Amino acid sequence: MTMSDYLTLDEAAEFLSTSKPTLYRWLRDGRIPGHKLGRQWRFLQSELETFRSGGPSDGRAEAEALIWEAIDAGANAVHLIPVGGAHSLRYRRDGGLEPVRDLDGDTFDALDRAWTAASRPVRGQEKRRLFLEREGERLQVRYRRLETFSGSRVTLRFVRESKMRLTLDGIAPEPADRAVLESLTGASHGLVLVSGRGGSGKTTTAYCCLNELAASGSRTVFTIEDEVGVYLPGVDQLEVDLDDPAAVRGAFSAVMDSDPDVLFVSSMVAQRHRGTIWGLALDAAENGHLVFVQLDAASPQHAIEQVTEAVDRPLDPILVGALWQRLERKPESGRRAVYQVEQGPLAR
Q1: Are 101 and 43 contained in the same domain?
Q2: What pLDDT, on a 0 to 100 scale, did the predictor assign at position 94?
Q3: What is the dihedral of CA 186, 307, 194, 254, to 10 degrees?
Q4: Domain count of the chain?
Q5: Distance between CA atoms of 120 and 130, rounded to whole angstroms?
Q6: Which of 175, 170, 113, 167 lies closest to 143 in space, CA to CA?
Q7: What pTM did the predictor assign?
Q8: What range does the domain containing 57 cover?
Q9: Do residues 218 and 290 share a domain?
Q10: Which value, to the nearest 10 degrees, does the dihedral of the CA atoms of residues 301, 304, 306, 308 take?
Q11: What phi and psi, each to the nearest 5 degrees, are found at residue 27?
């Protein structure tokens, strides 16, 4: 599509022989397909012809438009909450949940069908993921449907992937911090523990390291995760039920058969089977691969102690390092990661 294929709001109103307030109301109610380009609504004439003729629509344009409308309004999530036979559309912003408008049952059903058709399931139909792009912006939408006593409830959470700086420079602007991360990513093989308390940003740090390693194109990088947080171009990301030991072993076997150089393993949710996961990760590191393992810990030493106890063998011969981090507020704005590291014999 090019910009010449789109009609402006005035042109669309004239094409449909209606007023602009009516056209806005149809947009708001999800009755008509529209596309938000920047801050302006645009319309495809072919879609308006279908609407004018009363022909069927799969609702995807309306469903996508609702998401971009929420993004432009500064929302980080959308809630569609069943209330008295209708659905209340609400935005989650930093200040909390804000009501936007009500949707009738038919509109909600059409939107839900469209999101389901455009998305991929995450180990089940109730939890799904779709990706949208607009003018260079890549958006991950996490869909969750929940059946409540009042009716079906849908939550859409947004990850603005194109806004995230997943580079070592982005998370470690200080030379000393970058040197720490480079000492871990520069190893040819061995075990790297990426740890911290919940919400410390360790997943972001691990993803930045993987992005850096994949950027050269000379190393094959895999992940084994319960749920992929952010899409990483050039990285083969696997979603595996980490609470299923057979599925974990099968994933490790498949990855090892795929000639990997680097492997990242998340063990945040598999508390009962961490020994199995960590043992397989250590096997991979001992066999010449660079393996990153993410875990909760109170310090780098605590991370080493947890893994050593679970696998019942020493890590020293194969350890690149144990990274631990916390977040602190920057004087100007935002937060930055503060690192501690216990370096092993294989650190570069």
Answers
A1: yes
A2: 83
A3: 70
A4: 2
A5: 6
A6: 113
A7: 0.69
A8: 3-162
A9: yes
A10: -140
A11: -60, -45
